[in-house]
Amino acid sequence: MWAKGKALKVPTALVRVEPMADIPEGSGALKAPVTRPVRGKESKMAVFVLDKHKKPLMPCSEKRARLLLERGRAVVHRMMPFVIRLKDRRQEESALQPVRLKLDPGSKTTGLALVRDIERRDTDTGKVVWRSA
């Protein structure tokens, strides 16, 4: 139930607000907007991962993190940003790739992006052709 003066906090990027058309005008029902997720706007979020000695590993997807938590192979290390810690993995046993953390200082929130740090070189000249950072 909505309280007077209280707004429902929903991320606006994922929601389309539409008026309720199914309720008759004089029915006395709550006349609030219906929120529905916008199709095609889902983004793949990365979850930070630590080994059992709290050393960083490669980030994983939300789904993989959820499965690791359900199976008891990981515990939540931190909520904001969301970080899990694996119970049975060490950094020395894992394959790591160079990753950079990029910050996007927005007007309302600060965004985080993980970018793989790779570069391509021309085989003939040895010069950098493309770099992702």
Describe what you observe in this structure:
- This protein has 133 residues and is mainly β.
- 7% of the residues lie in helices and 34% in strands.
- The protein has one helix and ten strands, in the order ββββαββββββ.
- The radius of gyration is 22 Å and the shape is globular.
The quaternary structure here is single chain
- Indicate the mean pLDDT: 75
Q: Could you give the order of strands across the largest sheet?
A: 4-3-6-5
- Total of helices: 1
**Principal-axes shape call:** globular
Helix content: under 10%
Strand-pairing-aware structural class: mainly beta
Provide the low-confidence segments as ranges: 12-21, 27-38
Give the SSE order as H and E letters.
EEEEHEEEEEE
Radius of gyration, in angstroms, nearest whole number: 22 Å
Distance between the termini: 48 Å
Total count of strands? 10
Main sheet? Answer: 4 strands, mixed
Q: How large a portion of the residues is in β-strands, by DSSP E? A: 25-35%
SSE blueprint and pairings:
Blueprint (H helix, E strand, L loop, with lengths): L14 E4 L15 E4 L8 E5 L9 E2 H9 L3 E5 L4 E4 L12 E7 L4 E7 L2 E3 L6 E4 L2
Parallel strand pairs: 3-6
Antiparallel strand pairs: 1-2, 3-4, 5-6, 7-8, 9-10
In short:
By secondary structure, this protein is mainly β. Helices cover 7% and strands 34% of the residues.
Write a concise keyword list for the protein shown above.
133 residues, mainly beta, two-stranded antiparallel sheet
